[in-house]
Amino acid sequence: MQKSSDPRPTVLVADDSALIRRVLVDVLGGGEAESGQFRVVATARDGVDAVRKVHQYDPDVVTLDLEMPELDGLGAIGYIMSESPRPIVVVSAHAGPGTATAIRALELGAVEIVAKPPPDAGRAALAALAPELIAAVRRALAADVSHVKVMARPPAPVAHPPELALRGRATLAVAVAASTGGPRALADLVPQLPTGRNAAVLIVQHMPPKFTRSLAERLDSMSRLRVVEAADGAPIVADTAYVAPGDYHMRVRSSPDGPVIALDQTPPIWGVRPAADHLFRSVAQVFGAKSVGVVLTGMGRDGADGLRALHDTGGTGVAQDRESAVIYGMPGAAVQAGGVDAVLPLGQIADRVAVELIRRGGRP
What we know:
Layout lengths: L9 E5 L3 H12 L9 E6 L2 H11 L3 E4 L8 H11 L4 E6 L4 H11 L3 E5 L6 H5 L2 H12 L30 E7 L3 H8 L9 E7 L6 H11 L3 E4 L10 E4 L5 E5 L6 E5 L11 H12 L3 E5 L8 H9 L3 E5 L8 H9 L4 E3 L1 H14 L5
């Protein structure tokens, strides 16, 4: 392929709908005027076509639908990430079984997800995706996928111990923040977190609404912890992980019977809702020194100031290291803010959390 003098990052758009392909090309590439932020080098109508054109055009980023003929999106991701790794942005339906498939796509190596309107939506509804799609492609361009190992087979479902149903209120808290690359990192971390420490886990993952419930269900099937999408007013129970719902900030607050979940739609901070800074600060206020904060892969600095607040109340701050993070922005900002006690590879974080919980009174 002849090199272009156009300096814009290149994108391959893959979708089985001709209308959606045209809309995405216009949104990303600016149509014929070449006024867009990216240069769309090709489009693909199915997974086989997408894999072939990745090799042919070598795009910087691929946007990929999941429901396509010949080879579906999951199959295409598997081929792309094993043969010619690069950032992939999933553009997927935001309701029904498509959400669970999208979570699996993120485990396979896709780094971002954008919710697509239902098939009967008009062109105007599709064009309204522009700000979110452009932001997702920008984040994807910053991702380093060279070291991301493909999770080729789904792990076997894990049965929850019967005694989990009898757990009381948590006296310790583990707060986790993640963004780009986060679902894949959470799939590694959460199943390794210990039970029996009288601790709850609270997770903020930057993700569109409707997808966080599928993320929680997926993590629940992989983990000894019970994992749920958080509900406002829910008691914070030991050996349970709570995923903040998309488009809602999640905090913890005290109540006469113990700590509970508090959800709200106050304005985004750092451009995101849910925001980890809100979660970490509230954990610092309610749990104080009986808390551990973890900042995983992601762009930006959400979580940095909140982790410093948690650290300053006696809690422990942990950040994922540069080598294992898809994007080191959030962990790096947390380190700079002074709230990090340990910078660790993803595979070592669960063990450090377990040690800290025992130090802070969790039953060994």
